[in-house]
Specification:
The chain is α/β, with parallel strands linked by helices and 269 residues long. The protein has one domain. It has 5 helices and 17 strands. Strands 1, 9, 10, 11, 12, 13, 14, 15, 16 and 17 form a 10-stranded mixed β-sheet that branches. Strand 4 and strand 5 form a beta hairpin. The longest helix is centred in the middle third of the chain and has 16 residues. The chain is globular, with a radius of gyration of 18 Å. It starts with 19 loop residues before the first strand and ends with a strand.
Length: 269
């Protein structure tokens, strides 16, 4: 595995807005000292059989997460699907600037969300920032596609924790009924953010980085794959959008990296 891009170990504190706190019952056995500390890292262990052979269950900060090959994570205790960096309308924004790229990337991403919802039974989706890519991507075609999808899931609650692209692109149209909030949104053991940062008393779940790794094989084989990256005080989810790049992570000792290979999530370090 090649590690090329380094992320500062000293992380900023999320201070964009006052904490949005949702009261949840803490899981049994999860102490206050465990939150946001290296001891929480030692709990990142397999926690039983997954709902699907390709999923990977882990325990972090006293909560179970299921890592999904659809490039999302499921939080069973909250019945919540976590999706980072969907970048809806990115291809449309390129086409608006005269760059000819394939259409249909948003529809492909929505189909993956459908698959994750069907398999997990999630009742809520939290988008961890960068839901929309840019103002130029706010096309009628994109919103018709998303609108039809939203109508099929009218019973699913949805929340966007705004990211840097959302500040430029703007919130989704009100008729999509996606609530919006600034980071951090604190729920139980977790702080839901877009960018990796420190939130006192909580373990941060974030996106923004588009993490990936390069695996080396025999005969100079190289394979670049998206990954989930777990660090002592925060985790970075893979970019959900299919039309996004990868930034190679610099995993430190004690970090855990889980790659998405085809329809399977596998821990590699």
């Amino acid at each position: 595995m090649i590690m090329l891009i380094r992320i500062p170990r000293s992380l900023p504190t999320c201070s964009e807005s006052p904490h949005h706190t949702v009261q949840r019952t803490r899981s049994p056995g999860c102490s206050e000292q465990e939150f946001g500390s290296s001891s929480g890292m030692r709990d990142l262990l397999p926690s039983g059989p997954a709902a699907d052979p390709g999923d990977l269950p882990v325990s972090i900060a006293g909560e179970e997460l299921i890592l999904l090959p659809e490039r999302a994570a499921y939080w069973p205790a909250a019945r919540t699907l976590l999706v980072a960096d969907a970048h809806w309308g990115k291809a449309a924004s390129f086409r608006a600037e005269g760059v000819q790229v394939p259409a249909g990337t948003t529809a492909e991403g929505l189909a993956r969300i459908d698959a994750a919802l069907d398999r997990t039974g999630a009742r809520r989706i939290v988008f961890l920032g960068d839901l929309l890519h840019a103002k130029r991507g706010r096309s009628a075609t994109t919103f018709r596609t998303v609108g039809a999808w939203r109508e099929r899931h009218a019973d699913i609650a949805m929340l966007l924790v705004r990211g840097n692209h959302d500040r430029n692109a703007g919130d989704p149209p009100s008729d999509l009924e996606i609530d919006c909030a600034d980071a951090p949104v604190v729920e139980g053991a977790f702080a839901l953010c877009h960018q990796p940062c420190d939130v006192p008393g909580a373990y941060v779940l974030s996106g923004h980085v588009h993490p990936g790794v390069t695996l080396l094989g025999r005969g100079r084989q190289r394979l670049r794959l998206p990954c989930f990256w777990f660090r002592p005080r925060h985790a970075v989810l893979p970019a959900f959008g299919g039309f996004t790049g990868l930034a190679e992570v610099a995993a430190a000792p004690g970090d855990r990296v889980c790659v998405i290979a085809g329809g399977t999530v596998v821990e590699v370090g």
